[in-house]
């Protein structure tokens, strides 16, 4: 969670840091702050403010043009509420040293007790403030910020990305990471540090990944990485393929709307190069896996978990291998039985979700092979997996996940087809026909988006509803779960997804006169089409206002019918989810909510 950025170079640091924070604000928006090294060995300039970045920007009267290095932070509160005092940076007693932090310092209580005994005064309720005083203590003896940082990191428990600056060495920024992301952007006589590349893609496409327990020292012309004991490390370099413009809103009212409209291209990019001229599936990234597996386990959180639930149907049917899907946050706390014949697939847009990362590590400890389906190149989860399938959806800035989800589902389908091809559990003709269905999806999503206006208008008519229910069966059930999650997080309404067959076992009691129910219907050829129709009759009879999502093979009498193009049942969620995304988006706008930065949430959940 929390966004972190640092800049050192010839340009005014404040504008670079603020620009980076603007791009990272999706990671957390409870408060924001900056520290700038303006004058050698004098107290740093520090400004911090509760609330969104704009509050901080309004406070900044001057551009502090003399400052050539600076660090900035946008916070998602964990320890201590979203106040000015708890905002980062945190400052040493001398005012010459500043620290920003993403993550959780688990032993901060004992560190704080020790530091208070040493005479340090604390001004916040955060776990981070212990780090700045500890760093200050170590700096007294080392007089070297990098060496002091290494010693501090050895004493910390938990997860952290840390950046520190000291006015004694104003061009230097020192960073460190454990279980939390940090990348270096390599510019011309300037360098950047950030939680992710979106903070600096407008300035450079060259970047370095930092590994676990590494400390980096950055000046305008040099980057030096060591482990926690000062041994030199060669970091992995990578080129950023994302286009700088893709991190801008490009004329759309919100990032979420832009990302919804980017879905046809995102799916095309996921599919690009995956079928050769003979229709064979190509995923060379999987060559290191031994596909003699007898079980697949998908682990993920939130929307990515829904991608897993949807993907399971095709993956199991095509590969003939049993597939389970589990919340990463639950998996970690039980005693599962896994072996080298289990393939664990983690799904994550950010590649940094702490619960998914910890579940991945646990699965590895238990001996499973691991594959990550991920969007963010160079992030921790793919780095720690045996194999990775990148979805290439491009940067997803809105907190609510849209294009990442559709490409995750497509990614799982491609993996399923590849395994089926390797195991010969599908014939070449079957694979060719499925490849054609998958390849047709971008145009079909485009078709939905071209005719979305009436849906937007209809949604506004439901603005006053207190609760919306979502119904589906088979792959329509996890699609319904996703529809409900989107509405909860964006419109702050009660929303729940149900399996049609479960209605009579309890949820039907929720239906009263006028309750809106969004029902996802399968194609008429599905064996559950008739059953879904009966479910709709049952809820209509009890007063539900039904909004049905169906292709033209389905004939149904409901007050609102949203048509989607035809595809095979297994792939239908890739189409049926789109209107539900638009519904949630429009509802949030109609209710005056902040679409891109919904309350209490953050994009990348890097704490447990
Ligand atoms: C919901 C949403 C979240 C994420 C979840 C996992 O719209 O975005 O539920 O899907 O936090 O995030 P990643 O995919 O980054 O692991």
Number of strands: 24
Stretches where pLDDT falls below 50 for ≥5 residues? none
Write out the strand line-up for the largest beta sheet, numbering strands in chain order.
3-2-4-1-10-9-11-14
Ligands, ions, cofactors: fructose -6-phosphate
**Could you tell me how far the N terminus lies from the C terminus, measured between alpha carbons in angstroms?**
10 Å
CATH architectural designation of the largest domain: 4-Layer Sandwich
Number of helices: 18
Instruction: State which percent range the strand residues make up.
Output: 15-25%
Output the radius of gyration.
Answer: 25 Å
CATH fold topology of the largest domain: Glutamine Phosphoribosylpyrophosphate, subunit 1, domain 1
CATH superfamily of the largest domain: Aminohydrolase, N-terminal nucleophile (Ntn) domain
Counted up, domains total 3
User: Structural class from helices and strands?
Assistant: alpha/beta
- Overall geometry comes to globular
Average pLDDT over all residues: 94
CATH class annotation of the largest domain: Alpha Beta
Biggest beta-sheet profile: 8 strands, antiparallel
Proportion of helical residues: 25-40%
Secondary structure layout:
Layout: E1 3-8, H1 13-24, E2 31-37, E3 45-50, H2 53-59, E4 69-75, E5 90-91, E6 97-105, H3 108-117, H4 128-142, H5 145-155, E7 158-166, E8 173-178, E9 183-186, E10 191-194, E11 206-209, E12 214-218, E13 223-227, E14 236-239, H6 255-261, H7 263-271, E15 295-300, H8 302-319, E16 323-327, H9 328-331, E17 342-348, H10 354-365, E18 369-374, H11 380-383, E19 387-390, H12 403-423, H13 428-439, H14 441-450, H15 453-460, E20 467-472, H16 476-491, E21 494-499, E22 516-520, H17 529-541, E23 545-550, E24 560-563, H18 573-590
Helix pairs in contact: 3-4, 4-5, 7-12, 7-14, 8-12, 8-16, 12-13, 14-18, 15-18, 16-18
The protein binds fructose -6-phosphate (F6R).
Fructose -6-phosphate (F6R) binds at residues 301-304, 348-350, 353, 356, 400-401, 485, 489, 604-605.
């Amino acid at each position: 969670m929390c966004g972190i950025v640092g800049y050192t170079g010839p340009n005014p640091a404040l504008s670079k840091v603020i620009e980076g924070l603007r791009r990272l604000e999706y990671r957390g928006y409870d408060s924001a702050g900056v520290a700038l090294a303006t004058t050698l060995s004098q107290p740093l300039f520090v400004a911090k403010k509760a609330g969104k970045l704009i509050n901080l920007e309004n406070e900044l009267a001057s551009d502090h043009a003399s400052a050539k290095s600076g660090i900035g932070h946008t916070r998602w509160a964990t320890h201590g509420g979203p106040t000015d005092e708890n905002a980062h940076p945190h400052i040493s007693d001398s005012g010459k040293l500043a620290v920003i932090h993403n993550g959780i310092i688990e032993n901060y209580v004992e560190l704080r007790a020790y530091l208070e005994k040493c005479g340090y005064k604390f001004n916040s309720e955060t776990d981070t403030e212990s780090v700045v005083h500890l760093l200050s203590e170590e700096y007294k003896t080392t007089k070297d910020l990098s060496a002091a940082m290494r010693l501090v990191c050895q004493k910390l428990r938990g997860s952290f990305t840390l950046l520190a600056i000291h006015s004694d060495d104003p061009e230097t920024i020192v960073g460190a990471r454990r279980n939390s992301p940090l990348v270096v952007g390599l510019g011309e006589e300037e360098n950047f540090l950030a939680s992710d590349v979106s903070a600096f893609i407008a300035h450079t496409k060259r970047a370095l990944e930092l590994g676990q327990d590494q400390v980096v020292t950055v000046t305008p012309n040099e980057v030096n990485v060591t482990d926690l004991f000062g041994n030199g490390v060669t970091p992995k370099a990578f080129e950023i393929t994302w286009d700088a413009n893709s991190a801008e809103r490009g004329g759309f009212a919100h990032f979420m709307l832009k990302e919804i409209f980017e879905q046809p291209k995102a799916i095309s990019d996921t599919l690009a190069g995956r079928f050769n001229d003979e229709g064979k599936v190509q995923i060379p990234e999987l060559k290191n896996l031994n596909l003699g597996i007898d079980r697949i386990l998908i682990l993920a959180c939130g929307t990515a978990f829904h991608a897993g639930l949807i993907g399971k149907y095709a993956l199991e049917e095509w590969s003939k291998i049993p597939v389970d899907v589990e919340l990463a946050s639950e998996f970690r706390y039980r005693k599962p039985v896994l072996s080298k014949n289990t393939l664990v697939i983690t799904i994550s847009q950010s590649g940094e979700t702490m619960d998914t990362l910890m579940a991945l590590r646990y699965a590895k400890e238990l001996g499973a092979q691991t594959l990550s389906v991920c969007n963010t190149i160079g992030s921790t989860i793919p780095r720690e997996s045996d194999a990775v399938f990148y979805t290439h959806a491009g940067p997803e800035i809105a907190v609510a996940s849209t294009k990442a989800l559709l490409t995750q589902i497509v990614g799982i389908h491609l993996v399923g087809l590849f395994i089926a091809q390797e195991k010969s559990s599908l014939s070449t003709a079957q694979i060719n026909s499925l490849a054609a269905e998958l390849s047709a999806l971008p145009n079909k999503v485009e078709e939905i988006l071209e005719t979305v206006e009436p849906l937007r208008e209809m949604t506004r008519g439901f603005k006053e509803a207190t609760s919306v229910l979502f119904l589906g069966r088979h792959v329509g059930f996890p699609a319904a779960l996703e529809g409900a999650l989107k509405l909860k997080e964006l419109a702050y309404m009660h929303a729940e997804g149900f399996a049609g067959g479960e209605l009579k076992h309890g949820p039907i009691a929720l239906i009263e006169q006028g309750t809106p129910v969004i029902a996802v219907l399968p194609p008429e050829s599905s064996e559950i089409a008739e059953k879904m129709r009966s479910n709709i009759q049952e809820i209509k009879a009890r007063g539900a206002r039904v909004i049905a999502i169906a292709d033209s093979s389905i004939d149904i009498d409901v007050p609102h019918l949203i048509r989607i193009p035809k595809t095979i049942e297994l792939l239908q969620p890739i189409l049926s989810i789109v209107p539900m995304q638009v519904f949630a988006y429009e509802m949030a706008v109609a209710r005056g909510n902040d679409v891109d930065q919904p309350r209490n949430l953050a994009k990348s959940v890097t704490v447990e």
